[in-house]
Amino acid sequence: MEFNTILVEREEFLAQVTINRPTKLNALNRDTIKELHRAFKALDKDKNTKVIILTGSGDKAFVAGADISEFANFSVKKGEALAKKGQELLFNFVENMKTPVIAGVNGFALGGGLELAMACHFRVASDNAKMGLPEVSLGVIPGYGGTQRLPQLIGKGMAMELIMTAGMIDAPKALSCGLVNHVVKQEELLPLCKKIAAKITNNSSVAIGHAIKAVNAGFNTTLDGYNAEIKAFGKCFGTADFREGTTAFLEKRKADFPGK
Ligand code: COA
């Protein structure tokens, strides 16, 4: 796959996707969103990709937001279309992938950048990371799922304060409010993401895909999460991974899952 704004690297069952516009602090423009969609779609289909790490290029930013220069003169209609398309192509798409996506937040994650990190299945941050949704300082609101996912992750009151103040929180604060799962020195960020990824790859990719679906269903007001869990649980019983997992346990050996 050929890309201009992102890098995709492979290492056995792991894929690393790096947003690569460091001179613009990896701001998300139209091309980046399209390329990320293309890369994630292909990786989600790929049987050999069991975990994806998403990070930003350089040591300053994960993503400093949507590219402000692209939408500064948009109309009401164009603004709505921008949010809709972005949510469909990237943010909702990533959240609903069957392959786990870990955000390695290596610096500023602002606006669309924090929204992208929040669309990932979980987040690990470096100690220089700064996170926030500064949109109201620009006269707009978060449009890539931020008003929904931030309260889900840190609670309504904290989310309201962060959105209204357009403020930034540092990595320890993000850790204490559950926005990120771990904080480490910058040089330890990717090694830790890879260590967690390695633990994930020991398990059934098929079951993990079903688990993601069931967890997400609980946050979708049009679905019944418990019912989604029952259905997903049942489906696991028809999979080769389930046969291998249970057989390996009974034979006292490590499971070798056929996978995705
Ligand atoms: N969209 C477009 N370009 C952006 C950008 C964004 N969201 N964030 C940063 N950039 C660009 C800057 O314009 C600058 O480009 P230039 O060198 O061609 O002028 C370059 O990235 C470096 O940014 P700069 O502002 O010089 O870095 P800094 O260290 O002084 O400040 C930030 C860093 C993150 C505090 C600052 O860039 C910022 O506030 N960015 C916007 C954050 C934001 O509001 N995001 C939400 C968008 S909805």
Question: What characteristics describe this protein?
Answer:
single chain, 260 residues, alpha/beta, 2-enoyl-CoA Hydratase, Chain A, domain 1, 2 domains, six-stranded mixed sheet, four-stranded mixed sheet, 48% helix, globular, binds coenzyme A
How many domains make up the coordinates? 2
Q: Give the % helix.
A: 40-55%
Please tell me how large the radius of gyration is: 19 Å
| CATH superfamily annotation of the largest domain | 2-enoyl-CoA Hydratase, Chain A, domain 1
Strand order of the largest sheet: 1-2-3-5-7-10
CATH class of the largest domain: Alpha Beta
Structural class: alpha/beta
Describe this structure as you would to a colleague.
The protein is an alpha/beta fold and 260 residues long. The chain has 2 domains: 6-201, 2-enoyl-CoA Hydratase, Chain A, domain 1 (Alpha-Beta Complex), CATH 3.90.226; 205-250. 48% of the residues lie in helices and 17% in strands. The chain has helices spanning 30-45, 68-71, 76-95, 112-119, 146-154, 156-165, 171-176, 186-201, 205-218, 225-236, 240-250, and strands at residues 6-11, 14-19, 51-56, 61-63, 101-105, 108-110, 122-126, 130-132, 168-170, 182-184. The chain has a 6-stranded mixed beta sheet, with helices on both faces. Helix 4 (112-119) crosses helix 5, helix 5 packs across helix 6 (156-165) and helix 9 (205-218) runs antiparallel to helix 10 (225-236). The longest helix is centred in the N-terminal third of the chain and has 20 residues, at 76-95. The mean pLDDT is 97. The chain binds coenzyme A (COA). The site of coenzyme A has 16 residues, from helix 2 and strand 6. Coenzyme A (COA) binds next to helix 2 and strand 6.
